[in-house]
Amino acid sequence: MSSSFIQASIITIGDELLIGQVVDTNSAWMAQALNKAGIAVKRRVAVGDVWEEIWKVLDQETAVADIVLITGGLGPTADDITKPLLCEYFGGKLVRDEGATQNVINIFTRLKRPMIERNLKQGEVPDVCTVIPNRRGTAPGMWFEQADTIFVSMPGVPHEMKGMMETDVIPRLSSRFALPHIVHRTLLTVGVGESFLAEMIQDFETALPPAIKLAYLPNYGMVRLRLSATGFDEQALTQEIDGQFAALQTLVKDYMVTNRDEPIEQVVANLLKARGQTMATAESCTGGYMAHLITAMPGSSAFYTGSVVAYANAVKMNLLQVGENTLASDGAVSEATVRQMATGALAALGTDYAVAVSGIMGPDGGSAEKPVGLVWIAAASRSATVVQQMHFRFDRQRNIQLTAAAAFNLLRQLIIGG
Amino acid sequence: MSSSFIQASIITIGDELLIGQVVDTNSAWMAQALNKAGIAVKRRVAVGDVWEEIWKVLDQETAVADIVLITGGLGPTADDITKPLLCEYFGGKLVRDEGATQNVINIFTRLKRPMIERNLKQGEVPDVCTVIPNRRGTAPGMWFEQADTIFVSMPGVPHEMKGMMETDVIPRLSSRFALPHIVHRTLLTVGVGESFLAEMIQDFETALPPAIKLAYLPNYGMVRLRLSATGFDEQALTQEIDGQFAALQTLVKDYMVTNRDEPIEQVVANLLKARGQTMATAESCTGGYMAHLITAMPGSSAFYTGSVVAYANAVKMNLLQVGENTLASDGAVSEATVRQMATGALAALGTDYAVAVSGIMGPDGGSAEKPVGLVWIAAASRSATVVQQMHFRFDRQRNIQLTAAAAFNLLRQLIIGG
Question: Of chain A residues 319-378, which have a CB less than 8 A from chain B?
Answer without folding.
Answer: 319, 348-350, 362-364
